[in-house]
Automatic annotation (TrEMBL):
<dbReference type="GO" id="GO:0016020">
    <property type="term" value="C:membrane"/>
</dbReference>
<keyword id="KW-0769">Symport</keyword>
<dbReference type="Pfam" id="PF00083">
    <property type="entry name" value="Sugar_tr"/>
</dbReference>
<feature type="transmembrane region" description="Helical">
    <location>
        <begin position="421"/>
        <end position="442"/>
    </location>
</feature>
<comment type="similarity">
    <text>Belongs to the major facilitator superfamily. Sugar transporter (TC 2.A.1.1) family.</text>
</comment>
<feature type="transmembrane region" description="Helical">
    <location>
        <begin position="95"/>
        <end position="114"/>
    </location>
</feature>
<feature type="transmembrane region" description="Helical">
    <location>
        <begin position="297"/>
        <end position="319"/>
    </location>
</feature>
<feature type="domain" description="Major facilitator superfamily (MFS) profile">
    <location>
        <begin position="23"/>
        <end position="446"/>
    </location>
</feature>
<dbReference type="InterPro" id="IPR020846">
    <property type="entry name" value="MFS_dom"/>
</dbReference>
<dbReference type="InterPro" id="IPR036259">
    <property type="entry name" value="MFS_trans_sf"/>
</dbReference>
<keyword id="KW-0812">Transmembrane</keyword>
<keyword id="KW-0762">Sugar transport</keyword>
<dbReference type="GO" id="GO:0015293">
    <property type="term" value="F:symporter activity"/>
</dbReference>
<dbReference type="InterPro" id="IPR003663">
    <property type="entry name" value="Sugar/inositol_transpt"/>
</dbReference>
<protein>
    <recommendedName>
        <fullName>Major facilitator superfamily (MFS) profile domain-containing protein</fullName>
    </recommendedName>
</protein>
<keyword id="KW-0472">Membrane</keyword>
<feature type="transmembrane region" description="Helical">
    <location>
        <begin position="120"/>
        <end position="142"/>
    </location>
</feature>
Amino acid sequence: MANGGGLTTELYKGRTTSYVILACIVAACGGLTIGYEIGISGKTRFVIDLSRISFVLSQVNEDKRLIIFTSSLYLVGIAASLLASHVTKIYGRRLSILCGGLCSLVGAVLSGAAQNLAMLILGRIMHGIGLGFGNQAVPLYLAEMAPAKIRGALIIMFQLAITIGILCANLINYGSLWGWRLSLGLAGVPAILMTMGGFFLPETPNSLIERGRYEEARRLLTKIRGTEEVDAEYEDIKEASELAVTNPFKAIFQRKNRPQLVMATMIPFFQQFTGINAIMFYALVLFKKLGFGTDASLYSAVITGAVNVMATLVAITFVDKCGRRALFLEAGVQMFFTQMAIGLIFAIITPLSKSFAVIVVIMICIYVSSFAWSWGPLGWLIEIFTLETRSVGQGINVAVNFLFTFVIAQAFLAMLCHMTYGIFFFFAAWVLVMSLFVYFFLPETKSIPIEEMTSVWRRHWYWKRFVPDEDPPALPSYK
């Protein structure tokens, strides 16, 4: 490529402009929508009668129909994310963001104004389509707009928006007397922000070049990098586009793209099996098991939401300094031992005294914080994909994420009832497995130009057997 296949940004000129920062902030607002949905879904109870529909806001749901209802959105999201990968590649990242915002907005309006069950379900379907498009397009947009040296931080802004959305939902749930219509209808606020982003954001240079709009791409690249010296980056993107195939779904299953396919499936799978969504979806159920009263349970859920936000800021601060692997591995140790400690406390001490209940809450907050600077934000680092597979790779990533979000949502209450304290050992075991996976199979991608990622796979001790060896750069192998 333009820099001879090197893995540094020495030939990439320019600076971090306020223009690109503003564009990334606006785009990242798409994360507010899914965060708000996660926060609301676990706490709003819909008592559904076959002949009529009524709504009751309560703290704990034990109706399996509610679990199916609240998580069915993610089944729709699976199909929508795969469709979005096609739209994003052919028509651009901005259009997918716009589609996601509009569908989520329509879904919020239908849900908040629902007069019958059919109207409510239609609202959920529209919202699921919106989340599928948004989660596929926004991280991709951020990855392509961001300079390599701060790409990690800007992509993690998407996860920060998710955590803020969860916290806002928890605060609204705390004012539950406001009513279910307001809780559901307020999902339209982040949807409006996302829609505005779709209207006013510029397209990414990568997408413009991918669609043959070369001069427009060069002008935009000059603007977002704040310099006329963009030849190296421009040529790298152009070469990556020329190497791309017309059928990305077929391409990602080719042998040379095996590492990308594995990461597109395993990272979102592991992300859900950390156990985080079990806690965030059903925080009220969990805290009730801990012996807290109704008000204290909701208050504790707000605390975990605040911890989630603050810890995500840690990831933004350190991801481009320490690297992705360091955050993954440190958090893996922290998450494993907190899960084991919680499980042991429940196994040995029954019932919990007030002091031990407080200790468990502290342990949960430590666990949530470690997730928030590791598997939460780093699951969206789609820099691992080349341009030819980036859109479909992110579509698969989101689809797998939604699929196992649905699985966990369906299974958690039954697991909690049958496994009791063993559920913490279950998730701790998965944390150990995923940490070993990261240690052996995930290379470091810090500060590497996004269109140079093939070189990373070529130098990895395992993945190099799949990727053609074409002028590999002088870089030590990663474990």
